[in-house]
Amino acid sequence: MRWPWQRTPSHDLLIVSWSGQSLAFVEARQVQGRLAVKRIGLELQGADSADAFAERLFTLGLGRMPALAMLGVEQSMLLQIPAPAVPAEELRSAARYQIRDMVDTHMDDLTMDVLHVGDGQDKSAGQLFVVAATNAAIRDTLQLAARMQWSLPVIDVQEMAQRNLQTAWARGAGFAERASAAMVLVNERQALLTISAKGELYYSRRLDLPTGFLAMQWDGATGVEAAPVDAYTPVGEYIPDYGRATGALGADDALGAGADPTQRLLVELQRSLDLWDRTWTGLPLAGVGVYAGARSAELAGWLRQGLGQTVTVMDPASLFEDVPPVQEALKLRCLPLLGLLLRDGVPN
Prior knowledge:
By secondary structure, the chain is an alpha/beta fold. The protein has three domains: 79 residues, ATPase, nucleotide binding domain (Nucleotidyltransferase, domain 5, 2-Layer Sandwich); 61 residues; 179 residues, Nucleotidyltransferase, domain 5 (2-Layer Sandwich), CATH 3.30.420. The chain contains seven helices and 13 strands. Strands 3-2-1-4-8 form a five-stranded mixed sheet. The chain is globular, with a radius of gyration of 21 Å. The relative contact order is 0.15.
């Protein structure tokens, strides 16, 4: 279909996330062979029809250009499983069978892919990540892309975008060859924890945040001690806790239902980091990067005291030159998109 408002094809690159009738976007322009961020924004569909919303986006100059899309944590899952002992060409079908009891969605309603954990060598060789998204989430993104006449070769997930940002941050901090952790608040209810090394993702976990976490005063919890190491079951190999894929802090937690919710978050984070240290002894953590918008420095300070780790701010915007100002309310939704500008094959 040809739209009356269509314009000359653009040489810019658009990064988008379409969820809940809202479009978060980053537009980048090639300048001397490199991508420079041109603008960052969020557009709500509201009461507009699909066609009326597309017309509004065209008016904003967001049509007819190459694009990459990111599925947010509410639209996709990243599961870690033992690699099935099958030929490479059968991995997808074997993984589909293996995760059938780990998801609430009917397998026919899921689109999935597989990738090796880490570098696919040594301890990570026996592990796979399974990326799964509902067909509906994929379809909605493709339908918007068709209306906007985007060339959309890639739909990625937030964990991979965060890995790219984390790798760039680690490189700038001087420990690109070592392991690092990143904890980024994706909204007011959830944080995404990733552990990467040498540009590869080794671990991912979604941590539920206490209600009102971003409005809390954390100073009173800075002296909290994490649960001792001997409270954990010894781990001989790196096997994730499938039953807590979302990082839920349920009433069955060892701390008890009456525990301070910020302390429980701190202990859950410490558990993930301790498991890493005890399992990947050859890849000790060089540091932890965190991002929580305007409260990033406060969060880094609180976690630094509570975890006893080197914790610094990992601001996605600081990893690029001349990023335009972004409204505080949009940062958690929009800035993770910058990670797709760092994908292999995208000039940067």
